[in-house]
Amino acid sequence: MSLFNFGDDPLTKTYDAIVVGSGATGGWAAKQLSEAGLKVALLEAGRAVTPAEFTEHTPAYQLKYRDHDPEIARTRPIQKQCYACMEYNYTWFVNDLENPYSTPADKPFTWQRLRVLGGRSLVWGRQSYRLSDNDFKAASRDGYDVDWPISYADLAPWYDIVEKYVGITGAAEGNEMLPDGQFLPPMKMSCGEILFRDRVKAKFGRTVTIGRAAVLTKAQNGRSACHYCGPCERGCRTFSYFSSPFTTVADAQNSGNCTVITNAVVAHVNMDNSANKATGVTFVDRLTREVKEVRGKTVILCAQALESTRILLNSSTKEYPNGLANSSGALGHYLMDHVTGGGAGGELPNMNEKPNANEPDRPNGIYIPRFRNSPSVKKSANFIRGYGYQGSGDAVFNFGAGGYGAVYKKAVKEGNYTIGVGAFGESLARWDNYIEIDKTLKDAWGIPALRISMTHGDNEKRLMEDAAAQGAEMLEAAGAINIKMQARTEMPGMAIHELGTARMGNDPKKSVLTPFNQTHDVKNLFMMDGASFVSSACQNPTLTMMALTVRGCAKLIDRFKTNDV
Amino acid sequence: MKRREMLRASVLGGAAAALTPALAGAKSGRAAGLQGAGDEKSELTPAQRGVDASKELNVANWKPVFLDEHQNETLIILSDLIIPATDTPGAKEALVNRYIDLVMAAETHENQKSFLGNLAYIDGESMRIYKNTFRYLSREDQDDLLHTMAYPMSGSTWTGEAAGADPGFTNFEQLKTHIGVAYYTSQIGMKELGRDDNFTHGVYQGCDHAEGSHK
Lengths: 565, 215
Hints:
Chain A has about 575 residues and is of the alpha/beta class.
C-alpha cells in the first residue's frame, strides 16, 4: 500500500510522527503508530535491503579472500571487531572512514553499527531475555544509584505483545531472576549441554536453560520456521529470525500510513522555540549531500542510544544550550555496555559424538541466568549485581591438533567435544561514563561526531573474575577436562549493548525521559531505544527496548486521541 | 518429495512471498527522489551480488603475485607434507599455495614479513642441518626436518608450554595455521570435513539419549 505515496513529495507533508531509525525499536514505533492510523515518516540513514543480497547459504570458498578481504581492514577496522562483520556482508556495517568518533587515549571504546534499513536487527545475536524487579528495583536492594521509575508489572504485558509477534523460542524455568515469557517451542540441547545442565543443577542448584532467541521454531505471519542453516547474521531468506525490515517495517508500509525515507542522515531536531515544541528533523541525503527537512507533530528518536543522544546534543538552542531536552544536564551521561571477557571452556571426555559439517546448525546456545546477589542466596562479598552466561557444548573439528600429515588430517576429523560459557555482566550506571560532541571532528556528512568516555570499573572487573572462577567450577562439576579460565575485562562496546545516556526517571532534574520515553523538557519529543535505560541489568537488552517502545507508543496513541500532543 | 527438498522449496517460496513489502519500501523512497544519484548496487559486497570466486585460483597460466618462484615451490611442498593426499585430496590439489599468495599480497606489511620469515626459517634450518634449502632435500629429509620442528622436545610437548618457546615449533605451527585455514576453507577441504554443499540438513535434533546416559 505504500504505492499510494507514489508521486507525492514526502517532504511537503506534516506527519503525525517522524521516527528516526528503522532497527528493532524504530520498526516497532513505525508499525504501531501507522497501524493506529497515524501518518508516519520512517527515516533510515542507510539504503534499503532485499533478500536477494542475503548470503547465509554462501560457502566460504566462494569468497575471493574467504573472509580475509583487505577492504574490511581498510574501511572497517573498528566494525570488524564484531564477529558478524565479514566478507559476506561488511558493507551493511558503517564505513569507519566516514563515521569517525573519538575517545580519550586511555579509554578505548568500540562502536559497532549498521546503516541500512533494519539496522543492527539484521545481524543481532537474537538472544531475548526479560528483566525482572531484581533489575528494575536493584537500587532499593543494594543501595547503588536509583531504581527505574517502572516495575516489572508495568512492562510485563508489553513484553507479551512483543514476544508473540517477534517469536521467541525458549523454555519456561520459573527462575527468580529471569521471568518467563511467551515462548515458541524450545530448541534442543546437545548431549554435553544436558549433562552440564543436570550436574550444575545437582551441585549448585543453578539453572542452565536453552537460549531464548528471536528465531521461529514454528511458522507464523508468513515467516517459516528456522531451517538451521546457521549464520543468521548474513540474512535469512525465510525470515525465521526477527529483523525489522521484513516484519515491523513491512507491516508499517502495508498499513498505507508509513513513508520510508532511506539515505536520510539526520543531523538535528528542529524546534519552534516559542512553543517549546519539536517541528521535525533536518537530514543530509547520504548520497547527494543535499540538506532537507521533514516536518512532524512528534519526533521519535530510535537511532540507538549513542546516535539518538548525539542528535539531541547536536540540536542545542538558546533555550537548551547544552543539548536539546537537557535541562537536567544528564543527557549523555550514565553510558553503559555489558562487561564481557569472563568465562571458561574445556573438553568433555568420553563423548561418542564426532563433528559433522552437515549437521543442522543451531543458531542458539545455552543460557545461565544470573545467580549472584539473587533474593534466595547470600549477598556476594566483593561485588554488587551479577552476570549471566551464554555458552554451548558440541563436537567440533580439532584444527589445533598437533603434528602434521595423515595423522593431523585424521585428528582434525576426530574432533573434540568442547563446552564453554562466557559471561555478560551488569555495567553499573556512572555519571563519569559519558558521551559529548567532539569539538572538531565531523562525519562525512559534516555532522559533529561523538567523543566517548567510558571505562569499566572495579565492580565490572570483579564480576568477570567471579564469572571465570564460577564457570570453571561448573565445568569441573560436569566432568570437563583441560579447563581454561578467562578473566579479562573487555573494552567497553564489545558487548554491543550500549545503554543509557538519556535515562528515564520521575524527576526532571535528574533524568531526561519520562517513564513513557518522552523527554521531560519537550512534550512532543521522544527517545525510544536503549538510551532510556536506568541500569543495564545483565540480560541482552533488545527485547526490553522493544517492550518499552511499544508501551511508549501506546501512550502516545492515546494522547493523539485526546489531541494532547 | 524428500524432506530436504520440501524444506528447500518452502525456503524459496517464503522468500518470494515476503519480498514484496521490502521492495515496495525501496521503491517509495526512490520514487520520491530521495534515493539520490549514487548506485546503491555498488554498495553490495561481491558475495551479496552473487559473485562466486571459487574458480578464480584455478586458471591455466596462474603466477604468484606475492611469493617468488622459490617461495611458492617451497610452500607447495610444505603444504603437501602438512596436509597430504590420503584417501581424500590434500592441500596441493586444493591450491593452498595460490590462496595464500592471494591473501598475503593484500596483507599488512607486518604479516607479510612474518609469513616470509616462517618460510625463511625452514630454509635456514635446512641449510644448517642439510647444507641445502628445503625445496631441494629428499622427501625423507624434508619429513625428518619437519618432524624435529613439529615435535621439538619429544615426550614433553604434551603440555604445549615448553614447546611453545621453541622457534622451530613456533614457525612450523604458524605455517601450519596458514595452510590449515587455506585448506579447510577450500571446496576440497570443506568436502574433507563432510560438507555436501546443501545449506540445510533438517531440524536440529540435539540429544536423544535417555536421562542419565548422555555421551
